[in-house]
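dumping this here before i forget
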Amino acid sequence: MKGLNVRHLNKEELTEYNKQKKQIETAKKGLQHMMDNLQTQIDSKKQELALLQQQLNAGRITAAQYEEQKRTLNREIGDCQTKLDDRQKSWYRKRRN
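structure:
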């Protein structure tokens, strides 16, 4: 769609062009929303990790509990990061259109 000269389109082609343009804009907004949500999840899990460290330092949890919960949180962060990277790639592809 980039580089398309819309002045040479007939009415039907212009309608189709506008429809595609609107679909792309909607998809970009949806992807941006998903990326924002994933980043919020990542930040939240990082805060949980910091709190977990504080609990360990205060003696409220054992080292084994800390390691287990830390492993779980790091896996969840990694999963979210992978999804975020995928969404960012999709967003950049759509942004070029």
